[in-house]
Amino acid sequence: MKKIIVATGNEGKMREIRMIMKNLDIELVSLKEAGIEADIEENGTTFEENAIIKAKAIMELTGAVVMADDSGLEVDYINKEPGVYSARYLGKDTPYSVKNKNIIDRLAEAKGEERSARFVCAIAVAFPDGRILTSRGVIEGFIGYEEKGTNGFGYDPIVYVPEYGMTTGEMDPDFKNSISHRGKAIAKMTEQLKELYF
Ligand code: IMP
Question: Which mutation among 49, 54, 71, 102 tests ligand 1's pocket best, with the greatest number of atoms within 8 A of CB?
């Protein structure tokens, strides 16, 4: 069976990826299962660049096919911040209650459509022969006026998705996974792998 190392230390992401890719005849191995410890600097300027940096670095280390992801929140009114800095915004150990309040405050003058925002996820797969595949998934929404919902993590309580009438922080976790930026990006990558890898 073909094998892909998934460059994430996050168990939740690993579970989601396994669920979406379960019908492919590919063994998915986490960094931990592969016995790899790596601290890779994500110094790209786009989600795709960061996903490629991570996938290539682990591919070069292991000689295996490697999949990596990078994600974050883009808020249009503040020039798509926090973007690739989403995890590091205001400091990586700063509580999200503070980060979320800061974003709401920066949008004090923004009304209606001006509050548009989206979660973005890019996935990259790096092959030892140099080929790189990428895919992208998004959830479009608007920044709310206060935090709502205690499900999820990070910026979930401030991203209101009009299609479902709630923030991603109010969504049932399984439902969120089924419509998430990451879910969409993984599903698109699965289609590419089906065509190219087999
Ligand atoms: P990474 O892709 O694991 O580096 O995550 C980047 C950061 O983007 C996270 O630490 C969160 O701040 C934010 N983020 C990405 N996806 C989500 C989401 O689904 N909900 C809330 N925050 C998210």
Answer: 71
